[in-house]
Amino acid sequence: MRTTFTPEFYELFAVLLVAAVAVTIVVVAVADSFLVKLLHRMPHRPRPTARPTAPPDVPREGRTAPPVRRTPVPR
C-alpha cells in the first residue's frame, strides 16, 4: 500500500528546510568573520626575499658533531 504525503508534511518540510539553510548560512558567516579577525590579529612576518645559499664549509663553534668511531675494514 502506498503512503501519500499530506499538505501538512510538505509545509513542515519546507519550513524545516528553510530553517536549516538559514542556520547553515549564519554559522558559516560567523565562522568566516572569526577567521578573518584571527588572521588580521596575527603578526605579519616578512617573507625572505632570497633563499640562503649552501651552509658555509666551516661550522660555527659548538655546533660540531662528536667524532665517529669506525671499525677498520680489512682489505
Structural summary, described in words:
Helices cover 47% and strands 0% of the residues. With 75 residues, it is mainly α. The longest helix is centred in the N-terminal third of the chain and has 35 residues, at 7-41. The protein is elongated. The chain starts with 6 loop residues before the first helix and ends in a 34-residue tail after the last helix. The mean pLDDT is 83. Keywords: Membrane, Transmembrane, Transmembrane helix. Residues 44-75 are annotated as: Disordered. Residues 64-75 have a biased composition (Low complexity). The chain crosses the membrane at residues 12-35.
Throw out a few tags for this protein:
transmembrane helix, elongated, 75 residues, transmembrane, mainly alpha, membrane, 1 helix
Outline of this structure?
Keywords: Membrane, Transmembrane, Transmembrane helix. The chain is 47% helix and 0% strand.
Q: What does the oligomeric state look like here?
A: single chain
Q: What is the overall number of helices?
A: 1
The counted number of beta strands is 0
Q: What separation lies between the terminal Cα atoms? A: 91 Å
